[in-house]
TrEMBL record:
<keyword id="KW-0808">Transferase</keyword>
<dbReference type="Pfam" id="PF02595">
    <property type="entry name" value="Gly_kinase"/>
</dbReference>
<dbReference type="GO" id="GO:0031388">
    <property type="term" value="P:organic acid phosphorylation"/>
</dbReference>
<keyword id="KW-0418">Kinase</keyword>
<comment type="similarity">
    <text>Belongs to the glycerate kinase type-1 family.</text>
</comment>
<dbReference type="InterPro" id="IPR004381">
    <property type="entry name" value="Glycerate_kinase"/>
</dbReference>
<protein>
    <submittedName>
        <fullName>Glycerate kinase</fullName>
        <ecNumber>2.7.1.31</ecNumber>
    </submittedName>
</protein>
<dbReference type="InterPro" id="IPR036129">
    <property type="entry name" value="Glycerate_kinase_sf"/>
</dbReference>
<dbReference type="GO" id="GO:0008887">
    <property type="term" value="F:glycerate kinase activity"/>
</dbReference>
<dbReference type="InterPro" id="IPR018193">
    <property type="entry name" value="Glyc_kinase_flavodox-like_fold"/>
</dbReference>
<dbReference type="InterPro" id="IPR018197">
    <property type="entry name" value="Glycerate_kinase_RE-like"/>
</dbReference>
Amino acid sequence: MTENTSPRTLSIVIAPDSFKGRATAPEAAAYLGEGVREVLPHAEITLAPMADGGEGTSATFGGRTITLPTTDASGRLTEASYRYDETSATAYIDVAAASGLPAVIDRPVPLTGDTYGTGVLIADAQTRGARTITLALGGTATIDGGTGILVALGATPLDPRGYAVPKGGGYLSAIRSIDTAQLNIPAAACEWVLLCDVSSPATGPQGAAAVFGPQKGAEPEDVEILDRGLGHLCSLLSVDPATPGMGAAGGVGIGLTWLSRTLHGDDSHIRLLPGAPVVAASLGLPELIAQADLVITGEGRLDHQSTQGKVVGTVLDLARPHHTPVAVATGSVAGEVPSGASVTLLEDNPDDRAQLIDAGRRIAQRYLRTSTVQG
């Protein structure tokens, strides 16, 4: 009897984040996979494009895509899409879809931008039967504490004279009360899952205004106004500004925490969670990695934030208990390489697809050399 000595099929999981300005997460996964296939044509390759609560997160979940007119952060008419899963009655909405920075990059609105357009998407989802609203909080142009969403759902911030406060984070300090007479109760009463791509608090030197305000066009004096306004809003609405993730999306969690608490009396219907682990679980990534011979992930820039709730750090955490090797494709590295990561830098090439295919090819070649040496 002849013993079967045919080699076992290699199992490779490819789970990158998007490479901003170069490739979406699905594109990056596909291109990396093409490169791996050139070297390992018989490998079993599973594509699991990831997200961390930033742009592109909603697309990682199941359901049909809903597109409708709404407004961007500056109030201009636009279109935005979200995912709605009828089976679970859950809407998956990127706040950046309507209220993102790219739409106003030509004219940033750090003091006057608001999340009203996202509120329009939320209200629409509820009319379709959504009972859970999952919001991905990354990539916004706004620092309004979620007040734009509140207005879209019928809650009106008022100044001491009882007049509606102008929109945007620059006017948060003027709010003295919130009128709920016209509140969209069915939408407000939904279960809320807020997926954070950062763990920043609402205020202070690591808060929404100080860290992310300059990226959204805020000058130093604007940062002071915004930070003071977020602090005032937290105090007014009895929200702890130090809560990790409360600074994500310009403090959207502040307004929504108050909203859910107002409807239900406590915080049992709202959760603020790190985005990458939630996305990983929805994709079955923990189980896939446990059975894999190699995991490939990646992002545009590898730095100290990469292990702070981001995709690369999440993949490394999932792989570590199983001693599964992790290869990271990236455009640049700042600081120390995370423990357990084998880094492959993208070549200087204006063709994004070619860059990632080449990276996948080199990762597979390195894996073959390493596995041969190790036996």
